[in-house]
Amino acid sequence: MAFTAEWIPGQNLWETRNYGKYDGVNYVRVFLGHEQVYVQIEDVLVFETAPGYYRQNPFMKQAMDGIAYNQVKIIAYGTGSFGTKKVYEKILKQCGYSYIETIVLADDFHKKSCNFFFCQDMIRKYNPKNKKYGMIADHLLPFAKLKHLDFLLYTSPRYYASRYYFGKQLSQDEQFFENFVNEQLFNGLWKESRGYHFGYAFEGFFLYTFCHFLKQEVIRYEKTSVCFTAEAEVVRQAYEIFYPKDDTEMLYGWKDTKRDDNFREYIHKTVKNETLLVDFSMNLAWKEYLQEETKGKAEVRNLCDFFGKRDEKTQNFIKKAIAMTRETGFFIEQYEGELAIWKQREASIRNLRNGQEVHRGIMDFIRQFDQAVRQSIYNRNNFAKKSAGFLCEALEYAFDEEKRSKLHMQPMQAVLKSKAGKKAINFAKKVYRGMKKK
Predict the structure, then answer these.
(1) How many whole angstroms separate alpha carbon 122 and alpha carbon 47?
(2) Among candidate residues 31, 48, 132, the one with its CA nearest the CA of residue 82
(3) pLDDT of 252-281, one tens digit each?
(4) Averaged over 358-362, what is the pLDDT?
(5) Distance from C-alpha of 28 to C-alpha of 135, rounded to nearest angstrom
(6) Measured in Å, how far apart are the chain's first and last C-alpha atoms?
(7) Nearest Cα residue to 182 out of 199, 195, 201
């Protein structure tokens, strides 16, 4: 699978009526000269990545910082699903919105949702002098349309139709992963390449779970160091981010390296006692060779130990995922004494560039997801213990272009996008225009 560095298609997240496509700076421009801006909290200012775990929306934070800097008063409103007003105040401060002083909840006006009548009551109370104001929400507001306001529709990652969708019946930690990936990739702040998206959404989680599996093996067998084969270089980079205090080494040997006495001598010199030797492949013959050469010194682990027995179809997906993590085609063909003879497999510039983008996505995911897990209720080891099965399903989804391109719309989105919905909208527009003429 070759992506190149093209922008991912369909990633226009800044939707609004009458103004076109917007970024954070243009959000500020729309509301210059306004006295107030009313902004939805849930799924716009704040993401609820997991129950009780709230994160700042980086796109909206950039926009709100600019709006506040221009002395436009920001009034945040919400349904009350997060809790009381004090809870909302605490969440907004934790997410960096300390300059938002006014919070309005549906319960303030004895409403269950932020509907038309809620908006009407809110404006009547907080804007009695009818100062110029605008609104931002993740759904169309009939109130804003009726009042002809400057209204911006922000497509929340949770409802973005082209988001990554890993299934209906996910466990809490799997749902946390899905929410996190979509919130990071589809919040609207950055546009990244398709290769980066693939590395972030799939390969990163692959390495995340495998690294924590390896740490459990280190503890289980009381190993003092971890040695990685050359094909596990990307695993080493990830492992050192998670466990910087662990002693790590590199064994510059590939399954294609000539297995003669020089290579054996190099292995014996490099691999220390009480070592966990890690290979990033499904090759059992290569694992057996390494285990035989390091007998009594090391325990060898590869992806077969992590995934267990899998059918041929799943193994093919895993092998494709391994191939996607390679940045270059260089390998050591053989050792002549202590001298390594390097060789390069044929690789196009496109594939090399693709590998770099995938690798960049992997490293960004590992750093950001690990930080999020540490701050949440989840434990790193949860993902290592029970994620092999989920990971197989995720990799199958990753390499199925038809599944990945499928839109996942909310019921109302589906109705509006359907032929019947479009006909109804056009009919309503004609009726409205006819009424205006009269």
Answers:
(1) 23
(2) 48
(3) 998 889 999 999 999 999 999 999 999 999
(4) 93
(5) 12
(6) 59
(7) 201
pLDDT tens sequence across 132-174: 999 999 988 999 988 989 999 898 898 888 899 998 888 888 8
Q: How far is it, in rounded angstroms, from Cα 35 to Cα 271?
A: 68
Nearest Cα residue to 138 out of 410, 387, 371, 353? 410
Question: Is 71 buried (19+), middle (13-18) or exposed (0-12) by CB count in 10 A?
Answer: exposed
Angle, in degrees to the nearest 10, between helices 233-242 and 349-375: 20
Tokens encoding 389 = 């099965």
Question: SS3 sequence, the chain?
Answer: CCCCCCECCCCCCEEECCCCCCCHHHHHHHCCCCCEEEEECECCCEEEEECCEEEECHHHHHHHHHHHHCCCEEEEEECCCCCCHHHHHHHHHHCCCCCCCEEEEHHHHCCCCCCHHHHHHHHHHHCCCCCCEEEEECCCCHHHHHCCCEEEEECCHHHCCCCCCCCCCCCHHHHHHHHHHHHHHCCCCCCCEHHHHHHHHHHHHHHHHHHHHHHHHHHHCCCCEEEEEHHHHHHHHHHHHHCCCCEEEEECCCCCCCCCHHHHHHHHHHCCCCEEEECCCCCHHHHHHHHHHCCCCEEEECHHHHHCCCCHHHHHHHHHHHHHCCCCCEEEEEEECCEEEEEECCCCHHHHHHHHHHHHHHHHHHHHHHHHHHHCCCCHHHHHHHHHHHHHHHHHHHCCHHHHCCCCCCHHHHHHHCHHHHHHHHHHHHHHHHHHHC
Half-sphere exposure of 274 (CA within 13 A, CB side): 9
In the numeric block, the tokens 């179809």 are attached to 313
Classify residue 137 by burial, with Cβ atoms within 10 Å: 0-12, 13-18, 19+.
Answer: buried
State the angle between helix axes of 349-375 and 172-185 in degrees (0 to 180), rounded to the nearest 10. 120
Locate 202 and state its tokens. Answer: 């799939």
Name the least confident of 136-145, 190-199, 233-242. 190-199
